[in-house]
Amino acid sequence: MLYALNGSTIRTTPILTQIEAAARAGYAGLEIWFDKVDEHVAGGGSVSEIRRALDEHGLSVPTCIYLGDWFDTTGDAYQRALDECQRRFDIAAELGAPYVIAGPPLGSAPYDLGAQHYRELLELGARVGVKPSMEFLGFVEQLNTIEEALEIITRCAHPDATTVIDPAHIYRGGGSVESLALLTSDQIAVAHFDDCPADVPREIQQDEHRVWPGDGIFDLTRYLQLLRQTGYNRFLSLELFREDLWSRNPFHVATEGLEKMRSVVEKTSDN
Asked: Which residue has the higher pLDDT, 269 or 159?
């Protein structure tokens, strides 16, 4: 698999420095957050400048993150959400990202409406060659497991429907790593990589509790085995949300992260 760095891991770092850090550390890709793009443009930069930096450093963009407010809004609020999604699709297309991550609502999720909206979102993204991926989040009320994400994919009935898999969300949502076997490689937009701490109860874990791959209790060996069995062989992306890492040198964080990832992957390959 190819290694990517999710920009959240060095989130307080400006986008051009994120690109340089990821490339210098040896990653093949960088997942980019739209707020970092907007921050760069607001400071007088441009999206094309970011694209040039990516090309000069030989980096791909597996996904851009994220789309919100699209799942269960209606009327004018839904139209505003679609307008913003279109703006973000255009940015992702310019950056060469094949996927944009689309988040679920925090509360109850009306599945039929959400599936209808997801199909409309897929059709909207197709106009510029970008596919939204419906992510499940372990800490939300619903849509917090692989099974529930697959339910939306099934109801959506669109060939490009996918989800994002992430150890932290699988664990926090109370699901099982074995549920990965329910997916095909074509239903996975990107595979995030992180670990879950032993000293924080599962039911209260949030993004900021994630730890380096191999430093927690999630069965990453099985995660990788099942991922390979689906036929997935694209990006494995390091995604942490740690303030202690944000305060460190981003080049050092990126390098340490890749070393942690490789250590886990190589051990799994030996088994």
From this structure: 159
